Amino acid sequence: MLIRGAATLVASVLAASATWAADLDAPREAMAPVLGPQPFYLHVGVAGIFNDPRAHISVASAPIPGAAVKIADRATFAVEAGYFIAANIAVSVSGGVPPISKVEAAGTLSGLGAIGKTQGGPIAATVHYHFGELGAFQPYIGAGVSALVVFSDEDRLLRRYRTEEAVGVVLQAGFDLMLDAHWGVFFDAKKGFIATNTRGYLTGLPAHSSVSLDPVVLHSGLTYRF
Prior knowledge:
InterPro entries: OMP/PagP_B-barrel (IPR011250), OMPW (IPR005618). The protein has one helix and 15 strands, in the order H-E-E-E-E-E-E-E-E-E-E-E-E-E-E-E.
């Protein structure tokens, strides 16, 4: 359901892009300003978080062959705040309302149910280059640092279940489609490379997992420049 909703959101933004693409042939003075005098901007909208977890799990220091975890996709409200430090270069910080994710046993552990629940999510600080020569349509690419911020954990199969916060690298690409000097729509994609550790106790024995999350975050909504 989340993937279908994200696809609908992306399709809506792409449809708007097609509608406004004809404006690119108009005289440049009739277009929305490329950057204008507004160095600050906000991206506000819905984000989908799609994790691709790979885990190494052990109990009492003994690895469990074929053990894995799965984490369902999540949607949340997210905001990116940015500032142009040069005509085509901007820096930004992004984050959202932290969703609650259920970590379920998979692989050779399938059927054991949820290992635990975690409320948290990624935040990112990035620098990006904006291609401002295309008028109203303004794509960009960038990279930076991503952090997994954990607010709370909840026991399920494991007791005293805990997830460690972590830091990694993030890549970014997207576009703004400006409707006037201040307002527009946007689509943004971030790919994080981040790993964390979880700990707890299974029937009194210490359990540990090393999990590579490597999330993809798709974010779309309204742009406001000021």
